[in-house]
C-alpha cells in the first residue's frame, strides 16, 4: 500500500511539473508574441513619419492605425489556419513556428527602408508584414490556450488557461515600459531617427 501511495504521489508530482512547464512555455511564447504585436501601436508616431509622410500629421497617423486594424482583422484567419495545422503537426511545433514568424516579421519592420528611400514600396511592405503579424498572433494565442487546456487536469483547466490572457496584458504593459524607457534613455530625436528601429529588432533575441 505504501509503495502504491508513493507511486501515485510521484505520478501526481510529475503531472504537476509537466503542466507547469506547459504553462510557463506557452505564457512565455505569448508574451513574446504580443510584445512584438503591441510595439506597432506604441511606435505609431515614428512609423507614420517614416512610412506615411504628409503635411497633415494626423492623416499619416490615421493611415498607420489603419494598418494596425488590418492585423486585428486577420487574427481569426491565423487562428483557423494554425489551429488546423496544429491538429496535424502538433501544437508545440506550431507554437514555436508562430513565435518565430512574429519575431521575424517584427524585426523586418525595423529593416524596411523609409518612404524617402523606396517610395510607395515602403508602406506596401509594411502592410504585408503587418498582415503576417496578424495571422501569426491569431495562431499563437489560440494554439497556446488550447495546448495548455489539453495538458491540464480536467478539473483545473480554467485554473491554468487564464495564464494566456494574463500573459497578453503583461506583454502590452512590457512593450509600453520598454518603449518609454528607450525614449527616456536616448531622447525623442534619436528615437525618431533610429531608436524605433532598434526596438523592433529586439524581437530577434526575444524570439530565439
What do these coordinates show?
The chain is mainly alpha-helical and 208 residues long. It has helices at 2-42, 44-51, 57-73, 75-89, 91-109, 115-118, 121-151, 157-186, 188-201, 203-207. Helix 1 runs antiparallel to helix 7 and helix 1 runs parallel beside helix 8.
Question: Which features characterize this protein?
Answer:
208 residues; 0% strand; single chain; mainly alpha; 10 helices
Strand content: under 5%
Shape: elongated
The count of helical stretches stands at 10
Number of strands: 0
Q: Which series of helices and strands comes N to C?
A: HHHHHHHHHH
Distance between the termini: 47 Å
What would the average pLDDT be, to the nearest integer? 86
- Radius of gyration over C-alpha positions, nearest whole angstrom: 20 Å
The residue fraction in helices comes out at over 70%
Amino acid at each position: 500500500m505504501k509503495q502504491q501511495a508513493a507511486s501515485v504521489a510521484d505520478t501526481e508530482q510529475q503531472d504537476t511539473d509537466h503542466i507547469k512547464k506547459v504553462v510557463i512555455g506557452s505564457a512565455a511564447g505569448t508574451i513574446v508574441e504580443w510584445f512584438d504585436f503591441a510595439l506597432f501601436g506604441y511606435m505609431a508616431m515614428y512609423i507614420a513619419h517614416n512610412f506615411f509622410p504628409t503635411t497633415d500629421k494626423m492623416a499619416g497617423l490615421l493611415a498607420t492605425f489603419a494598418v494596425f486594424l488590418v492585423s486585428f482583422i486577420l487574427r481569426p484567419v491565423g487562428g483557423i489556419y494554425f489551429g488546423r495545422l496544429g491538429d496535424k503537426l502538433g501544437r508545440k511545433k506550431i507554437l514555436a513556428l508562430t513565435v518565430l514568424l512574429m519575431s521575424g516579421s517584427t524585426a523586418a519592420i525595423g529593416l524596411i527602408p523609409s518612404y524617402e528611400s523606396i517610395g510607395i514600396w515602403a508602406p506596401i511592405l509594411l502592410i504585408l508584414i503587418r498582415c503576417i503579424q496578424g495571422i501569426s498572433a491569431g495562431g499563437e494565442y489560440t494554439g497556446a490556450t488550447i495546448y495548455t487546456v489539453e495538458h491540464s487536469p480536467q478539473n483545473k483547466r480554467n485554473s491554468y488557461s487564464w495564464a494566456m490572457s494574463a500573459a497578453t496584458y503583461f506583454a502590452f504593459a512590457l512593450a509600453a515600459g520598454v518603449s518609454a524607457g528607450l525614449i527616456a534613455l536616448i531622447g525623442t530625436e534619436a528615437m525618431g531617427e533610429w531608436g524605433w528601429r532598434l526596438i523592433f529588432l529586439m524581437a530577434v533575441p526575444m524570439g530565439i
